[in-house]
């Protein structure tokens, strides 16, 4: 008797499941490519290389970093999305390309929720709102009182960066007048705050570490929901006067959608072990980030919430800022 259609379908499922299990047992049997959608030599590239070395140790195969910068980090992730979901190509993604980029005008054709599988969140990038040493703003509450009435231009590291949108979220949450002033990175924004050209800026915390110690810059608050481990004396926005405010910047590891669960679990375990290593944590801190592991399922839920947050902020921007 010939097997029925239902029997053939069930047999196909069983064969596929068996093949996936065999693949997971032998995985990895060759080198793994880690796509870093950033230019070589920067902090994010350095974090990718630190993790690649440690993951190679954990998995028993080399993990090779492939730099594919472009389109704010989206170009490399689009390449990842088209890769075979077999665990031999993974990639790094950050707030901008994953949670912000899809909602921008003329967004690149990347659909993270449909095309990528979150593996783990790996690090937080501390951002801080700063003002000049001689500024009248002694704390965040003094800014809230003044910026509710008069415009206080606020520098950032570039249009539509997490720095820019963190200030926009602050403005909308507390009903402040904080017109954005985009720069090409945090460093020039810091220089203009020190020189008095702009009264405020949201910048990478590590870009002002020296100025904070020297007293040439004042920190009003960090944008994350918790105080930074790098500068625990700086309050969060929520603590300093804006209840419920949180705008973290972060990065994580991803695979193409369709990665078999056993391979995803093996990669996730290796990433967790790598990030638990004190030497790896220290190297990441040296590269201006804070290790912050989050497993695949929790990371996926986190990304959904982040995407919804930034979609609302972008939708609320004045038309002139969206051009």
Q: Would you mind describing this structure in some detail?
A:
With 323 residues, the protein is of the alpha/beta class. It is built from 14 helices and eleven strands. The chain has a six-stranded mixed β-sheet with strand order 2-1-3-10-4-11, with helices on both faces. Helix 2 links the parallel strand 1 (32-36) and strand 2. Helix 2 packs across helix 11.
Task: Detail the topology: elements first, then pairings.
Elements: H1 5-26, E1 32-36, H2 43-59, E2 63-67, H3 74-81, E3 89-94, H4 95-100, H5 112-115, E4 116-125, E5 127-132, H6 140-147, E6 154-156, H7 162-174, E7 180-182, H8 186-195, E8 200-204, H9 209-214, E9 217-222, H10 237-240, E10 249-256, H11 261-276, H12 278-286, E11 290-294, H13 296-315, H14 319-322
Parallel strand pairs: 1-2, 1-3, 6-7, 6-8
Antiparallel strand pairs: 3-10, 4-10, 4-11, 5-8, 5-9
Helix pairs in contact: 2-11
């Amino acid at each position: 008797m010939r097997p029925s259609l239902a029997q053939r379908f069930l047999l196909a499922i069983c064969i596929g499941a068996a093949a996936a299990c065999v693949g997971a047992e032998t995985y990895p049997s060759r080198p793994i490519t880690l796509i870093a959608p950033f230019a070589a030599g920067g902090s994010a590239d350095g974090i990718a290389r630190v993790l690649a070395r440690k993951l190679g140790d954990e998995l028993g195969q080399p993990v090779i970093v492939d730099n594919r910068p472009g389109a704010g980090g989206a170009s490399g992730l689009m390449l990842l999305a088209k890769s075979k979901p077999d665990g031999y190509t993974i990639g790094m993604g950050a707030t901008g390309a994953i949670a912000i980029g899809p909602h921008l005008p003329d967004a690149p054709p990347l659909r993270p929720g449909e095309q990528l599988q979150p593996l783990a969140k790996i690090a937080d990038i501390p951002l801080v709102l700063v003002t000049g040493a001689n500024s009248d703003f002694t704390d965040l509450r003094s800014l809230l009182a003044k910026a509710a009435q008069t415009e206080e231009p606020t520098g950032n590291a570039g249009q539509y960066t997490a720095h820019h949108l963190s200030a926009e979220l602050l403005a909308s949450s507390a009903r402040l007048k904080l017109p954005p002033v985009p720069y090409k990175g945090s460093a020039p924004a810091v220089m203009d705050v020190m020189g008095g050209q702009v009264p405020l800026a949201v910048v990478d915390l590590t870009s002002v570490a020296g100025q904070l110690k020297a007293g040439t810059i004042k920190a009003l608050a960090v944008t994350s929901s918790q105080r930074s481990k790098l500068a625990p004396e700086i309050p969060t926005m929520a603590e300093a006067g804006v209840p419920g405010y949180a705008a973290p910047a972060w990065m994580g590891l991803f695979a193409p959608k369709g990665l078999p669960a056993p391979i995803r679990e093996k990669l996730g375990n290796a990433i967790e072990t790598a990030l638990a290593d004190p030497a790896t944590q220290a190297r990441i801190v040296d590269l201006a980030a804070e290790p912050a592991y989050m497993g695949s399922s929790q990371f996926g839920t986190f990304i959904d919430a982040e995407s919804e947050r930034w979609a609302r902020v972008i939708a609320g921007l004045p038309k002139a800022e969206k051009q």
